[in-house]
Write a structure and sequence with these properties.
Radius of gyration: 19 Å
Distance between the termini: 47 Å
Structural class: alpha+beta
Number of strands: 6
Shape: globular
Largest sheet: 4 strands, antiparallel
Oligomer: single chain
Strand content: 5-15%
Order of helices and strands: HHEHEHHEEEE
Strand order of the largest sheet: 3-4-5-6
Length: about 200
Amino acid sequence: YLTERVEKRDQPFFLYVPFNAVHGPLNKPPRYAELDVRSAMLKCMDDAVGRIVKAVDTQGFKENTLVIFTNDNGPVLEEMSKPYRGAKNTTYEGGVRVPCVMRWPGHTKPGSSNDGMMFVADFFSTFVKLAGGSLKQERPLDAHDMTGMLFDGAPSPRSEIIFEVSGSVRTPTIRSGDYKLMGDLLYNVIQDPSEQ
């Protein structure tokens, strides 16, 4: 794909690569037989991400390409989400707070961090803005443009996240500012991020 894009270098593009690893069913790639199954799957995914980033760099897109690596939910085991409580299929911080790594030379600083509130759907409006598109769409967008927060040090424009959980095992939850209401439980996730 990237070799084809070289001829259209001045046009924005979007490449989405969803990995199933590390996720069930747990199958060890044969080339990593010496590792346990989770480590083998993680190593295989790491290799694939490395190949994608290398292709971005060798095809000359590095300086003008935003690379994002993130997840849609927390881990399956709560001990893997420490210091947060909860895991996948919960709305505790361990189930909804996920890492997000970004690289965009000249726009992101290596080793920096950002704790601004963001919901994964906010990438849509952010990408539209970065690609030069209009946020005035036929239907209202349920996403915020996060370019100011991510690249200019501005505060997050998002003040709440509503976790729509119908049809799941999760508890109805709303995060508003520093507070998160989960059913009848109220937490200040800034003062008590492990929701004890």
